[in-house]
Structures are given as C-alpha cells and as structure tokens.
Specification:
By secondary structure, the protein is α/β, with parallel strands linked by helices. 39% of the residues lie in helices and 17% in strands. The chain folds into 2 domains: 239 residues, Type I PLP-dependent aspartate aminotransferase-like (Major domain) (Aspartate Aminotransferase, domain 2), CATH 3.40.640; 90 residues, Alpha-Beta Complex (Aspartate Aminotransferase, domain 1), CATH 3.90.1150. The longest helix is centred in the last third of the chain and has 21 residues.
Length: 344
C-alpha cells in the first residue's frame, strides 16, 4: 500500500509501447526528429493555439529553466510559500536564473489570493536599484495541497500580474489532475486565463521521465533553447522523451489516468471521513488526501504496510498531518484495505 507519491508507480503500458516504436530504426538527434515535430503540432491541437514546446526530463528543470527565461538575475519570482519551486527544488530557480529571488507568500489551502500578491508586491519599490524587481508570478495547479485553481481564479491573478508587468508561470506537474478535476479544457485553464508559460507534467501521470515547457506565445520563449542545452536537458535522443509525451496526449489518455487517480483519492477521503481520529484537512480536489490522524491510527496503518508521508511535526492535539497520494496505477484494493485498517 504505497501512498507516498504518484512518482512511486511505474510507467503506463502505452509509454512502453511508444518507446518501443521510437526504438525502431534511426532518426535525427537533439529534437530534430519526426516525433518531436509531431509533438509540437499535437500540443497546439490540445491547447487550441500555436505554442513553443520544449521537452525536458524533470519537473525541476521545467520550472527552473522556464522561470530563468522569464526573470533576470536581479528579478524576483512571487509564489506560494509551500510551492515546489521554493521548498523542494534545492535552489534550482536561483541557480539557473543566476540569482533571481523567490518570494514565498502565504495562502489558504495552497492557493494564492490576488490581495496577498498585491500586498507582497507593495513591499518592492519599482525601479529602486536596492530592491529585486518582481518579474514573474508562479502558481501551482494542482497545488501542493491537492487543491485546484479555477479558471476565474487564475484570470484574477493574471490581472494582478499584468498590472505590475509580471509574467504568469504555472507549475503543472499535476496539470492533468487539475484539468480532469474541473472538466474544463486545457486552454481554459492555461493561456485563456492568462498563463504565459506552463511546466506540463507527465512523469507523475504515467511517463518514465518526461515533462514539457510550453510557451503560449512562441516569440516569448526567448533564449530557452540555449538554457536547455547549457543545463544538460537537450537530450541527444530526444525522440524517446517526446514519444512519452505524444503517447500521453494520444486519445486523451493523460486525462483518463489523472481522472482515475482523482477518483481513487475521492474514494479514500470518503472512507476516512467516518473514521474516529481522522480529519480531512483540505478539500480533496485531485489525487492527494491530507488528513490529520491520531498517532495510534498512523502507527497501525504503517504496521500493516501502508506507506505515506508525514506533513510537518506533530500537532498540539496529538495528531499529525499526513499526505496520501493516489496514482493512475494505485490498486483499488489498496484504498479499500487502508480504510478498513483505519476503521479497525
């Protein structure tokens, strides 16, 4: 019963099949292959507009390189205080931007509010050489706490960003889960709401290792190609990365996988709601369930083989916040078993 992360399960069958097809014969290297060319066209279809697409092999690279392209060394990136870019990427944004500052902002349930962004921006004096200059706002969808931004919420944040001359970046490591949760189109949840650059995640959703940076105005992709090369993410056999992304988009499989993971999380949350000593901490909108558990329940689950992360230190009430994540490949039986053990 592994609920630590959607990274823990293997690849979806269509990914293995796509890699096998890409392995048949020879093709051009460094992204000049036929599969990578098809991928750009396919993303344009999915997002309903011309886009610039740059495959990479990790979400950290996608976030750091896209933000480094949008923000100069003297700039600042505003983001949620719990966001992956500021908490879990080991200073990658600062490294690849040559010193841009990350500014964490608090927000309820993992989401930023326009008023909080406005308040943070007010602390910087525009044009003052003593202050880093805010140049980008980065949001995560789905958020680190499993919640989602609706299109109108993204548009409101985009309005603030535009008013202050900032670009809007979206960390979409679980973008598929957000789209599947809301039932909207990818376009509605990205560029139509004001997103300039998207880190499109596939690794958590069935790929072996494939992400893509998408610029919705290709002319604004700047020197990304050179940054990707310098960072070691221009793969010589790029067709194998592109093949995974193409397979994900084929027949909307990426949304089907995300929808299954979301449904399993919802079932898990429903099961735990009736457990004495368990309290759901945040709305369960995608594939992550955050629950405050009595220590005895957590210990019983782990003794039975369940794996999950503690999310912070023990609370004063004796409970601990834990995170349970489902994936496209999580067995339904594991969800049922965890609930059964929790209720025991």
């Amino acid at each position: 019963m592994n609920f630590t992360s959607d990274n823990c399960y293997g690849a979806a069958p269509e990914m293995i099949e796509a890699l096998a097809r890409a392995n048949d014969g020879a093709d051009a290297s460094y992204g000049d292959d036929a599969i990578s060319a098809r991928l750009t066209r396919r993303f344009a279809e999915v997002f309903e507009r011309e886009v610039a697409v740059f495959p990479v092999i990790s979400g950290t690279a996608a976030n750091a390189l896209s933000l480094a392209t949008l923000v100069p060394p003297h700039g600042a990136v505003l983001c949620h205080a719990t966001s992956h870019v500021v908490v879990d990427e080991c200073g990658a944004v600062e490294l690849f931007s040559h010193g841009a500052r990350l500014v964490g902002i608090e927000g309820e349930a993992g989401k930023l509010a326009p008023t909080a962004v406005e308040a943070a921006l007010a602390r910087f004096v525009k044009g003052d050489v003593h202050h880093p200059q805010p140049k980008a706002l980065s949001i995560t969808n789905a958020t680190e706490l499993g919640t989602v931004y609706r299109a109108h919420e993204i548009a409101a944040l985009s309005g603030v960003a535009r008013a202050h001359g900032l670009k809007l970046h979206m960390d979409g490591a679980r973008f598929a889960n957000a789209v599947a949760s809301l039932g909207c189109t990818p376009a509605e949840l990205s560029w139509k709401a004001g997103v300039d650059a998207l880190s499109f995640g596939a690794t958590k959703n069935g790929a072996l290792g494939a992400e893509a940076v998408i610029f919705f105005a290709p002319a604004e992709s700047g020197d990304f190609e050179y940054r990707r090369k310098k960072s070691g993410h221009l793969m010589s056999k790029m067709r194998f990365v592109s093949a995974q992304l193409e397979a994900a988009l084929d027949k909307a499989g990426w949304l089907a996988h995300a929808g299954r993971a979301n449904a399993l999380a919802a079932a898990l949350a429903r099961g735990l709601e009736g457990v004495r000593g368990a309290e759901i901490a945040f709305p369960v909108e995608t594939n992550a369930v955050f629950v405050r558990l009595d220590a005895a329940i957590a210990a019983r689950l782990r003794a039975a083989g369940a794996r999950f992360y503690d999310w912070g230190p023990p609370e004063a009430c004796g409970r601990r916040l834990v995170r349970l994540v489902t994936s496209f490949a999580t067995p339904e039986a594991d969800v049922a078993k965890l609930v059964e053990i929790a209720k025991a």
